[in-house]
Design a protein that fits this description.
The chain is mainly alpha-helical and 505 residues long. Among the domains are: 215 residues, no CATH class; 30 residues, no CATH class. The chain contains 19 helices and two strands. The chain has a two-stranded antiparallel ribbon with strand order 1-2. Helix 2 packs across helix 5. The longest helix has 38 residues.
Length: 505
Amino acid sequence: MLARKSLLMISSLLLTNIFGFVSWYFITNNILQEYVGSIGWAISFLGLVGFFIDFGFSTAHIKKVSEGKDIGKCIGTYATVKTVLLMLLIIVVFVSIELYKIIPGVGFKGSYDEDIIKIMLVWMLLSGLSTIALNTFVGRQEIAKSQLPLMVGAIVQSLVTIYIVLNYNDVYLYAVTYIIGSSLTLYVSFLLMKDYSIKLPSWKLFKEYFKFALPLMLSYGAAPIILFLDKVMLGIFWENSDVSIYWNAQKYAMLPDMMTATFITVLFPAFSALIAKGSISKVKSITLEAEKYISMVTFPAAFILMALSVPFIEIVSDKTYSDSALVFSILMGWVILRALNRPYVSHFAAFNKTIYPMIITILNIPINTILNLIFIPESIYGVKLLGMGPSGAALATLISIFIQFFVVRYLSRKLIKVPINWCVPKHIVSAAIPTLLIYLFQLEVAGIHRWYEVIGIGIIGVAIYLGILILFKEFGKKDLDMIIDTIDAKKMFRYLKEEIFGRGG
Protein backbone atom coordinates (compact mmCIF):
# COMPACT_ATOMS: atom_id res chain seq x y z
CA MET A 1 0.00 0.00 0.00
CA LEU A 2 2.91 2.37 0.71
CA ALA A 3 4.15 1.81 -2.83
CA ARG A 4 0.69 2.51 -4.25
CA LYS A 5 0.34 5.70 -2.21
CA SER A 6 3.80 6.80 -3.38
CA LEU A 7 2.89 6.00 -6.99
CA LEU A 8 -0.32 8.00 -6.65
CA MET A 9 1.61 11.03 -5.42
CA ILE A 10 4.23 10.64 -8.15
CA SER A 11 1.49 10.26 -10.78
CA SER A 12 -0.22 13.38 -9.46
CA LEU A 13 3.05 15.30 -9.60
CA LEU A 14 3.76 14.08 -13.11
CA LEU A 15 0.31 15.03 -14.35
CA THR A 16 0.34 18.50 -12.80
CA ASN A 17 3.90 19.11 -13.93
CA ILE A 18 3.13 18.03 -17.49
CA PHE A 19 0.51 20.78 -17.56
CA GLY A 20 2.89 23.10 -15.74
CA PHE A 21 5.75 22.51 -18.15
CA VAL A 22 3.50 22.91 -21.17
CA SER A 23 2.37 26.27 -19.82
CA TRP A 24 5.99 27.12 -18.95
CA TYR A 25 6.95 26.50 -22.58
CA PHE A 26 4.41 29.12 -23.66
CA ILE A 27 5.58 31.47 -20.89
CA THR A 28 9.25 31.35 -21.92
CA ASN A 29 8.33 31.79 -25.58
CA ASN A 30 5.82 34.63 -25.15
CA ILE A 31 6.66 36.60 -22.01
CA LEU A 32 9.68 38.84 -21.54
CA GLN A 33 12.47 37.30 -19.44
CA GLU A 34 12.29 40.34 -17.19
CA TYR A 35 8.64 39.55 -16.41
CA VAL A 36 9.39 35.89 -15.70
CA GLY A 37 12.27 36.92 -13.45
CA SER A 38 10.04 39.40 -11.63
CA ILE A 39 7.53 36.66 -10.71
CA GLY A 40 10.34 34.33 -9.62
CA TRP A 41 11.95 37.07 -7.56
CA ALA A 42 8.63 38.02 -5.92
CA ILE A 43 7.99 34.40 -4.90
CA SER A 44 11.52 34.19 -3.50
CA PHE A 45 11.20 37.51 -1.66
CA LEU A 46 7.95 36.35 -0.04
CA GLY A 47 9.45 32.97 0.83
CA LEU A 48 12.44 34.64 2.44
CA VAL A 49 10.59 37.20 4.57
CA GLY A 50 7.80 34.69 5.31
CA PHE A 51 10.15 32.00 6.59
CA PHE A 52 8.02 31.64 9.73
CA ILE A 53 4.66 30.67 8.17
CA ASP A 54 5.15 26.97 8.92
CA PHE A 55 7.67 26.72 11.76
CA GLY A 56 7.19 22.95 12.02
CA PHE A 57 3.47 23.10 12.90
CA SER A 58 2.54 21.22 9.72
CA THR A 59 4.74 18.29 10.75
CA ALA A 60 3.34 18.48 14.28
CA HIS A 61 -0.19 18.37 12.84
CA ILE A 62 0.60 15.36 10.65
CA LYS A 63 2.23 13.64 13.64
CA LYS A 64 -0.70 14.18 16.00
CA VAL A 65 -3.30 13.21 13.41
CA SER A 66 -1.34 10.03 12.53
CA GLU A 67 -1.24 9.15 16.25
CA GLY A 68 -5.03 9.17 16.39
CA LYS A 69 -5.62 12.36 18.37
CA ASP A 70 -9.07 13.97 18.27
CA ILE A 71 -9.30 15.02 14.60
CA GLY A 72 -11.67 17.92 15.23
CA LYS A 73 -9.46 19.48 17.91
CA CYS A 74 -6.38 18.91 15.75
CA ILE A 75 -7.93 20.75 12.80
CA GLY A 76 -9.20 23.59 15.00
CA THR A 77 -5.82 24.03 16.69
CA TYR A 78 -3.79 23.85 13.49
CA ALA A 79 -6.16 26.19 11.64
CA THR A 80 -5.86 28.79 14.41
CA VAL A 81 -2.06 28.64 14.42
CA LYS A 82 -1.89 28.83 10.62
CA THR A 83 -4.27 31.80 10.43
CA VAL A 84 -2.29 33.77 13.02
CA LEU A 85 0.99 33.10 11.19
CA LEU A 86 -0.51 34.18 7.85
CA MET A 87 -1.85 37.40 9.37
CA LEU A 88 1.63 38.08 10.71
CA LEU A 89 2.98 37.46 7.21
CA ILE A 90 0.91 40.34 5.79
CA ILE A 91 2.43 42.79 8.28
CA VAL A 92 5.99 41.53 7.76
CA VAL A 93 5.74 41.70 3.96
CA PHE A 94 4.57 45.33 3.86
CA VAL A 95 7.22 46.38 6.38
CA SER A 96 9.90 44.50 4.41
CA ILE A 97 8.91 46.22 1.16
CA GLU A 98 9.37 49.65 2.74
CA LEU A 99 12.71 48.66 4.28
CA TYR A 100 13.94 47.22 1.00
CA LYS A 101 13.27 50.51 -0.79
CA ILE A 102 15.50 52.51 1.55
CA ILE A 103 18.54 50.18 1.65
CA PRO A 104 21.46 52.01 -0.03
CA GLY A 105 22.42 50.57 -3.42
CA VAL A 106 19.46 48.20 -3.48
CA GLY A 107 16.11 48.67 -5.13
CA PHE A 108 13.46 47.09 -7.31
CA LYS A 109 14.75 46.41 -10.83
CA GLY A 110 11.38 46.97 -12.53
CA SER A 111 8.64 49.53 -11.92
CA TYR A 112 6.19 46.66 -11.50
CA ASP A 113 8.22 44.54 -9.01
CA GLU A 114 6.58 45.97 -5.87
CA ASP A 115 3.06 45.44 -7.24
CA ILE A 116 3.91 41.86 -8.25
CA ILE A 117 5.02 41.09 -4.69
CA LYS A 118 1.63 42.26 -3.39
CA ILE A 119 -0.27 40.16 -5.96
CA MET A 120 1.83 37.09 -5.14
CA LEU A 121 1.18 37.68 -1.44
CA VAL A 122 -2.49 36.87 -2.07
CA TRP A 123 -1.39 33.63 -3.75
CA MET A 124 0.79 32.76 -0.76
CA LEU A 125 -2.04 33.39 1.72
CA LEU A 126 -4.47 31.18 -0.20
CA SER A 127 -1.85 28.43 -0.54
CA GLY A 128 -1.16 28.62 3.19
CA LEU A 129 -4.84 28.18 4.07
CA SER A 130 -5.01 25.12 1.80
CA THR A 131 -2.44 23.31 3.93
CA ILE A 132 -4.96 23.06 6.79
CA ALA A 133 -6.93 20.45 4.87
CA LEU A 134 -4.05 18.98 2.85
CA ASN A 135 -1.88 18.19 5.89
CA THR A 136 -4.86 16.68 7.66
CA PHE A 137 -5.28 14.26 4.76
CA VAL A 138 -1.57 13.41 4.83
CA GLY A 139 -1.74 12.69 8.57
CA ARG A 140 -4.58 10.25 7.93
CA GLN A 141 -2.57 8.82 5.02
CA GLU A 142 -5.42 9.78 2.66
CA ILE A 143 -3.04 10.51 -0.16
CA ALA A 144 -5.72 10.69 -2.86
CA LYS A 145 -7.51 13.47 -1.00
CA SER A 146 -4.25 15.35 -0.46
CA GLN A 147 -3.39 15.25 -4.17
CA LEU A 148 -6.73 15.98 -5.86
CA PRO A 149 -6.95 19.68 -4.82
CA LEU A 150 -3.36 20.29 -5.91
CA MET A 151 -4.04 18.65 -9.27
CA VAL A 152 -7.18 20.66 -9.93
CA GLY A 153 -5.54 23.96 -9.01
CA ALA A 154 -2.36 23.30 -10.99
CA ILE A 155 -4.12 22.07 -14.14
CA VAL A 156 -6.59 24.97 -14.26
CA GLN A 157 -3.81 27.47 -13.57
CA SER A 158 -1.76 26.00 -16.42
CA LEU A 159 -4.63 26.25 -18.90
CA VAL A 160 -5.44 29.83 -17.88
CA THR A 161 -1.76 30.75 -18.08
CA ILE A 162 -1.47 29.45 -21.64
CA TYR A 163 -4.46 31.56 -22.69
CA ILE A 164 -3.09 34.66 -20.94
CA VAL A 165 0.46 34.54 -22.31
CA LEU A 166 -0.72 33.79 -25.85
CA ASN A 167 -2.91 36.88 -25.82
CA TYR A 168 -1.19 39.30 -23.44
CA ASN A 169 2.47 40.04 -22.74
CA ASP A 170 1.51 41.36 -19.32
CA VAL A 171 3.30 40.60 -16.06
CA TYR A 172 0.25 41.51 -13.93
CA LEU A 173 -2.10 39.09 -15.69
CA TYR A 174 0.58 36.40 -15.52
CA ALA A 175 0.79 36.92 -11.73
CA VAL A 176 -2.99 36.65 -11.35
CA THR A 177 -2.94 33.11 -12.80
CA TYR A 178 -1.25 31.97 -9.57
CA ILE A 179 -4.17 33.34 -7.55
CA ILE A 180 -6.65 31.47 -9.75
CA GLY A 181 -4.82 28.18 -9.19
CA SER A 182 -4.47 28.60 -5.42
CA SER A 183 -8.13 29.63 -5.07
CA LEU A 184 -9.27 26.39 -6.70
CA THR A 185 -6.89 24.31 -4.58
CA LEU A 186 -8.30 25.93 -1.43
CA TYR A 187 -11.90 25.38 -2.53
CA VAL A 188 -11.47 21.70 -3.44
CA SER A 189 -9.39 20.90 -0.35
CA PHE A 190 -12.05 22.24 2.02
CA LEU A 191 -14.81 20.62 -0.04
CA LEU A 192 -13.17 17.22 0.57
CA MET A 193 -12.95 18.02 4.29
CA LYS A 194 -16.62 18.99 4.64
CA ASP A 195 -17.52 15.75 6.48
CA TYR A 196 -14.78 16.18 9.08
CA SER A 197 -15.72 17.45 12.49
CA ILE A 198 -13.97 20.74 13.27
CA LYS A 199 -13.80 21.78 16.92
CA LEU A 200 -12.55 24.77 18.84
CA PRO A 201 -8.77 24.88 19.32
CA SER A 202 -7.41 23.12 22.38
CA TRP A 203 -4.84 24.86 24.57
CA LYS A 204 -3.56 21.49 25.77
CA LEU A 205 -3.19 20.28 22.20
CA PHE A 206 -1.53 23.54 21.17
CA LYS A 207 1.11 22.97 23.84
CA GLU A 208 1.72 19.50 22.40
CA TYR A 209 2.01 20.97 18.91
CA PHE A 210 4.35 23.68 20.16
CA LYS A 211 6.52 21.25 22.11
CA PHE A 212 6.89 19.02 19.04
CA ALA A 213 7.42 21.94 16.65
CA LEU A 214 9.83 23.93 18.84
CA PRO A 215 13.01 22.04 17.83
CA LEU A 216 11.79 22.13 14.21
CA MET A 217 11.25 25.89 14.12
CA LEU A 218 14.82 26.69 13.20
CA SER A 219 15.02 24.05 10.46
CA TYR A 220 11.58 24.82 9.03
CA GLY A 221 12.23 28.54 9.26
CA ALA A 222 15.60 28.09 7.59
CA ALA A 223 14.30 25.93 4.74
CA PRO A 224 12.76 28.92 2.87
CA ILE A 225 15.92 30.94 3.51
CA ILE A 226 18.05 28.26 1.88
CA LEU A 227 15.53 27.70 -0.94
CA PHE A 228 14.96 31.36 -1.86
CA LEU A 229 18.13 33.18 -0.84
CA ASP A 230 19.94 32.39 -4.11
CA LYS A 231 17.21 33.94 -6.29
CA VAL A 232 16.85 36.98 -4.05
CA MET A 233 20.62 37.55 -4.23
CA LEU A 234 20.57 37.12 -8.00
CA GLY A 235 17.89 39.80 -8.17
CA ILE A 236 19.96 42.11 -5.97
CA PHE A 237 23.37 41.66 -7.60
CA TRP A 238 22.28 40.80 -11.15
CA GLU A 239 19.11 41.39 -13.18
CA ASN A 240 15.58 39.95 -13.32
CA SER A 241 16.57 38.14 -16.54
CA ASP A 242 19.32 36.30 -14.61
CA VAL A 243 16.73 35.26 -12.04
CA SER A 244 14.67 33.81 -14.91
CA ILE A 245 17.69 31.82 -16.18
CA TYR A 246 18.21 30.24 -12.77
CA TRP A 247 14.49 29.78 -12.05
CA ASN A 248 13.99 28.09 -15.42
CA ALA A 249 16.62 25.45 -14.59
CA GLN A 250 15.39 25.08 -11.03
CA LYS A 251 11.78 24.45 -12.11
CA TYR A 252 12.83 21.42 -14.13
CA ALA A 253 15.22 20.22 -11.43
CA MET A 254 12.42 20.48 -8.86
CA LEU A 255 10.30 17.84 -10.63
CA PRO A 256 12.50 14.83 -9.78
CA ASP A 257 13.14 16.40 -6.37
CA MET A 258 9.42 16.69 -5.65
CA MET A 259 8.85 13.14 -6.87
CA THR A 260 11.32 11.75 -4.35
CA ALA A 261 9.86 14.06 -1.69
CA THR A 262 6.65 12.04 -1.93
CA PHE A 263 8.48 9.23 -0.17
CA ILE A 264 8.89 11.38 2.95
CA THR A 265 5.19 12.30 2.88
CA VAL A 266 4.31 8.61 2.90
CA LEU A 267 7.21 7.28 5.00
CA PHE A 268 7.00 9.75 7.91
CA PRO A 269 3.53 8.74 9.20
CA ALA A 270 4.28 5.08 8.37
CA PHE A 271 7.57 5.15 10.31
CA SER A 272 5.86 6.99 13.16
CA ALA A 273 3.19 4.28 13.46
CA LEU A 274 5.78 1.45 13.28
CA ILE A 275 8.02 3.02 15.93
CA ALA A 276 5.02 3.45 18.22
CA LYS A 277 4.50 -0.34 17.89
CA GLY A 278 8.20 -1.07 18.46
CA SER A 279 8.73 -2.50 14.94
CA ILE A 280 12.26 -1.11 14.49
CA SER A 281 13.39 -3.95 12.21
CA LYS A 282 10.52 -3.10 9.87
CA VAL A 283 11.65 0.53 9.79
CA LYS A 284 15.14 -0.64 8.74
CA SER A 285 13.83 -2.87 5.96
CA ILE A 286 11.49 -0.16 4.60
CA THR A 287 14.34 2.39 4.71
CA LEU A 288 16.60 0.13 2.64
CA GLU A 289 13.84 -0.71 0.19
CA ALA A 290 12.86 2.96 -0.22
CA GLU A 291 16.50 3.95 -0.77
CA LYS A 292 16.92 1.18 -3.32
CA TYR A 293 13.99 2.28 -5.48
CA ILE A 294 14.76 5.99 -5.08
CA SER A 295 18.33 5.31 -6.20
CA MET A 296 17.19 3.03 -9.03
CA VAL A 297 15.02 5.78 -10.50
CA THR A 298 16.97 8.92 -9.61
CA PHE A 299 20.43 8.09 -10.97
CA PRO A 300 19.44 7.28 -14.56
CA ALA A 301 16.98 10.20 -14.70
CA ALA A 302 19.50 12.73 -13.36
CA PHE A 303 22.54 11.43 -15.27
CA ILE A 304 20.77 11.18 -18.62
CA LEU A 305 19.25 14.64 -18.20
CA MET A 306 22.74 15.99 -17.48
CA ALA A 307 23.98 14.55 -20.77
CA LEU A 308 20.98 16.01 -22.62
CA SER A 309 20.84 19.31 -20.71
CA VAL A 310 21.51 21.67 -23.65
CA PRO A 311 18.94 20.28 -26.12
CA PHE A 312 16.51 19.59 -23.28
CA ILE A 313 16.54 23.20 -21.99
CA GLU A 314 16.42 24.75 -25.46
CA ILE A 315 13.47 22.55 -26.47
CA VAL A 316 11.34 22.75 -23.32
CA SER A 317 11.82 26.50 -22.85
CA ASP A 318 13.51 28.67 -25.48
CA LYS A 319 17.00 29.17 -26.95
CA THR A 320 17.23 32.47 -25.09
CA TYR A 321 17.34 30.33 -21.94
CA SER A 322 20.31 28.22 -23.12
CA ASP A 323 22.41 29.46 -20.18
CA SER A 324 20.04 27.47 -17.96
CA ALA A 325 21.61 24.21 -19.24
CA LEU A 326 24.73 24.49 -17.08
CA VAL A 327 22.66 25.49 -14.05
CA PHE A 328 20.34 22.53 -14.69
CA SER A 329 23.24 20.05 -14.89
CA ILE A 330 24.67 21.26 -11.58
CA LEU A 331 21.26 21.07 -9.90
CA MET A 332 20.90 17.44 -10.98
CA GLY A 333 23.67 16.64 -8.51
CA TRP A 334 21.61 18.42 -5.86
CA VAL A 335 18.59 16.29 -6.82
CA ILE A 336 20.55 13.04 -6.39
CA LEU A 337 21.89 13.87 -2.94
CA ARG A 338 18.52 15.16 -1.72
CA ALA A 339 16.79 12.03 -3.01
CA LEU A 340 19.15 9.61 -1.30
CA ASN A 341 18.69 11.43 2.00
CA ARG A 342 14.88 11.25 1.95
CA PRO A 343 14.35 7.96 3.87
CA TYR A 344 16.93 8.93 6.49
CA VAL A 345 15.52 12.41 7.07
CA SER A 346 12.17 10.70 7.77
CA HIS A 347 13.73 9.03 10.82
CA PHE A 348 14.20 12.26 12.76
CA ALA A 349 10.58 13.32 13.28
CA ALA A 350 9.36 9.70 13.44
CA PHE A 351 11.72 9.04 16.38
CA ASN A 352 10.78 12.41 17.93
CA LYS A 353 14.37 13.58 17.50
CA THR A 354 13.39 16.95 16.11
CA ILE A 355 16.60 18.39 17.54
CA TYR A 356 18.48 16.75 14.66
CA PRO A 357 16.97 18.89 11.87
CA MET A 358 17.86 21.89 14.02
CA ILE A 359 21.51 20.77 14.18
CA ILE A 360 21.56 20.34 10.39
CA THR A 361 20.07 23.79 9.94
CA ILE A 362 22.52 25.47 12.30
CA LEU A 363 25.29 24.11 10.07
CA ASN A 364 23.54 24.68 6.76
CA ILE A 365 22.40 28.31 7.03
CA PRO A 366 25.84 29.92 7.42
CA ILE A 367 27.44 27.53 4.91
CA ASN A 368 24.78 28.22 2.27
CA THR A 369 24.79 31.97 2.87
CA ILE A 370 28.58 32.27 2.71
CA LEU A 371 28.77 30.15 -0.45
CA ASN A 372 26.10 32.27 -2.16
CA LEU A 373 27.93 35.44 -1.17
CA ILE A 374 31.17 34.07 -2.62
CA PHE A 375 29.80 32.59 -5.84
CA ILE A 376 27.02 35.00 -6.94
CA PRO A 377 28.15 38.68 -6.65
CA GLU A 378 31.00 40.16 -8.65
CA SER A 379 31.89 42.30 -5.65
CA ILE A 380 30.51 43.59 -2.36
CA TYR A 381 31.69 46.98 -1.10
CA GLY A 382 34.82 46.73 -3.23
CA VAL A 383 35.69 43.16 -2.24
CA LYS A 384 36.06 41.15 -5.45
CA LEU A 385 34.16 37.84 -5.50
CA LEU A 386 33.64 35.06 -8.05
CA GLY A 387 30.68 36.75 -9.78
CA MET A 388 29.37 33.56 -11.36
CA GLY A 389 25.72 34.60 -11.25
CA PRO A 390 23.18 31.80 -11.88
CA SER A 391 25.78 29.01 -12.21
CA GLY A 392 27.39 30.23 -8.98
CA ALA A 393 24.06 29.98 -7.19
CA ALA A 394 23.73 26.38 -8.41
CA LEU A 395 27.25 25.49 -7.24
CA ALA A 396 26.57 26.97 -3.81
CA THR A 397 23.43 24.83 -3.58
CA LEU A 398 25.30 21.67 -4.62
CA ILE A 399 28.16 22.12 -2.15
CA SER A 400 25.71 22.83 0.68
CA ILE A 401 23.71 19.65 0.07
CA PHE A 402 26.93 17.62 -0.30
CA ILE A 403 27.92 18.59 3.25
CA GLN A 404 24.40 18.04 4.52
CA PHE A 405 24.30 14.55 2.98
CA PHE A 406 27.00 13.25 5.32
CA VAL A 407 25.59 15.04 8.37
CA VAL A 408 22.15 13.42 7.83
CA ARG A 409 23.66 9.94 7.52
CA TYR A 410 25.72 10.41 10.69
CA LEU A 411 22.74 11.60 12.75
CA SER A 412 20.47 8.88 11.37
CA ARG A 413 22.92 6.18 12.47
CA LYS A 414 22.73 7.53 16.01
CA LEU A 415 19.03 6.63 15.96
CA ILE A 416 18.90 3.46 13.91
CA LYS A 417 21.84 1.62 12.40
CA VAL A 418 20.62 0.87 8.91
CA PRO A 419 23.28 -1.19 7.08
CA ILE A 420 25.04 0.21 4.01
CA ASN A 421 22.89 -0.19 0.93
CA TRP A 422 25.19 -1.72 -1.68
CA CYS A 423 22.54 -1.27 -4.36
CA VAL A 424 23.45 2.41 -4.65
CA PRO A 425 26.99 2.06 -6.13
CA LYS A 426 25.66 -0.50 -8.62
CA HIS A 427 23.01 1.99 -9.72
CA ILE A 428 25.66 4.71 -10.12
CA VAL A 429 27.77 2.53 -12.43
CA SER A 430 24.73 1.31 -14.36
CA ALA A 431 23.51 4.88 -14.94
CA ALA A 432 26.96 6.31 -15.74
CA ILE A 433 27.51 4.00 -18.74
CA PRO A 434 24.51 5.09 -20.88
CA THR A 435 25.14 8.69 -19.80
CA LEU A 436 28.69 8.56 -21.14
CA LEU A 437 27.48 6.95 -24.38
CA ILE A 438 24.88 9.70 -24.89
CA TYR A 439 27.47 12.40 -24.26
CA LEU A 440 29.93 10.82 -26.73
CA PHE A 441 27.16 10.41 -29.31
CA GLN A 442 26.45 14.17 -29.21
CA LEU A 443 30.15 14.99 -29.27
CA GLU A 444 31.34 12.62 -32.00
CA VAL A 445 28.31 11.57 -34.07
CA ALA A 446 25.43 14.04 -34.16
CA GLY A 447 23.80 16.81 -32.17
CA ILE A 448 20.30 16.49 -30.75
CA HIS A 449 17.89 19.29 -31.65
CA ARG A 450 14.31 17.98 -31.66
CA TRP A 451 12.02 16.89 -28.85
CA TYR A 452 11.49 13.39 -30.25
CA GLU A 453 15.26 12.94 -30.52
CA VAL A 454 15.64 13.81 -26.82
CA ILE A 455 12.87 11.35 -25.89
CA GLY A 456 14.25 8.64 -28.20
CA ILE A 457 17.82 8.94 -26.92
CA GLY A 458 16.50 9.04 -23.35
CA ILE A 459 14.52 5.82 -23.86
CA ILE A 460 17.57 4.09 -25.35
CA GLY A 461 19.63 5.25 -22.37
CA VAL A 462 17.08 3.86 -19.90
CA ALA A 463 16.96 0.57 -21.81
CA ILE A 464 20.76 0.24 -21.60
CA TYR A 465 20.57 1.08 -17.90
CA LEU A 466 17.96 -1.64 -17.23
CA GLY A 467 20.04 -4.14 -19.18
CA ILE A 468 23.07 -3.41 -17.01
CA LEU A 469 20.93 -3.67 -13.85
CA ILE A 470 19.78 -7.12 -14.95
CA LEU A 471 23.40 -8.18 -15.52
CA PHE A 472 24.21 -6.95 -12.00
CA LYS A 473 21.16 -8.89 -10.76
CA GLU A 474 19.78 -5.64 -9.38
CA PHE A 475 16.50 -5.88 -11.25
CA GLY A 476 14.62 -9.15 -11.35
CA LYS A 477 11.21 -10.77 -11.28
CA LYS A 478 10.51 -9.65 -7.71
CA ASP A 479 11.08 -6.00 -8.65
CA LEU A 480 9.01 -6.36 -11.80
CA ASP A 481 6.14 -8.00 -9.90
CA MET A 482 6.22 -5.20 -7.31
CA ILE A 483 6.06 -2.55 -10.04
CA ILE A 484 3.23 -4.35 -11.87
CA ASP A 485 1.24 -4.72 -8.63
CA THR A 486 1.83 -1.07 -7.73
CA ILE A 487 0.63 0.26 -11.08
CA ASP A 488 -2.31 -2.18 -11.30
CA ALA A 489 -5.10 0.07 -12.57
CA LYS A 490 -7.92 -1.88 -10.91
CA LYS A 491 -6.26 -1.80 -7.49
CA MET A 492 -5.44 1.88 -7.85
CA PHE A 493 -9.02 2.71 -8.84
CA ARG A 494 -10.32 0.67 -5.88
CA TYR A 495 -7.98 2.54 -3.53
CA LEU A 496 -9.06 5.93 -4.91
CA LYS A 497 -12.74 5.01 -4.63
CA GLU A 498 -12.41 3.74 -1.05
CA GLU A 499 -10.44 6.74 0.16
CA ILE A 500 -12.33 9.58 -1.50
CA PHE A 501 -15.87 8.23 -1.22
CA GLY A 502 -15.64 5.49 1.42
CA ARG A 503 -14.49 7.33 4.55
CA GLY A 504 -15.58 10.35 6.45
CA GLY A 505 -13.89 12.41 9.14
